[in-house]
Design goal:
With 116 residues, this protein is an alpha+beta fold. The chain has three helices and six strands. A hairpin with a 4-residue loop joins strand 4 and strand 5.
């Protein structure tokens, strides 16, 4: 029993690290932060230009898309999109490389929008 516990304790950091490396995309609905942090979808953008938009992934929660202009996200409010990029789970943020609506790329980053 002690040996099994020891092996599990050794594997835990590896499993945690592997999980973080897998997160390279989010699939969810564009919604406002006020609703998103409550795991709900907004029916309309409150205050329009003043609402912070992001993506609500139903499995992982609400994430702010740090390098995409809000007016781009406004076009897809309430619609499902896929965001590919680097997910920072601890900050609830994703640095997007590109955004897809269905199979169409609707936004693609550049070196200026994707700082290293």
């Amino acid at each position: 029993m002690k040996r099994l516990l020891f092996v599990l304790l050794l594997m835990f950091p590896l499993l945690t690290f592997a999980d973080k490396r897998k997160e390279k995309e989010l699939v969810g609905v564009v919604t406002g932060a006020v609703c998103g942090i409550r795991h709900k979808l907004c029916s309309h953008p409150r205050g329009e230009k003043y609402e912070l938009l992001g993506i609500l992934d139903h499995k992982r929660g609400f994430f702010y898309i740090a390098n995409v202009p809000q007016d781009i996200l406004q076009k897809f409010f309430g619609e499902e999109i896929k965001v590919e990029g680097k997910v920072h789970r601890e900050r609830a943020t994703i640095i997007a490389n590109r955004i897809l609506k269905g199979d169409n790329v609707v936004w693609e980053g550049s070196e200026k929008t994707n700082p290293k």
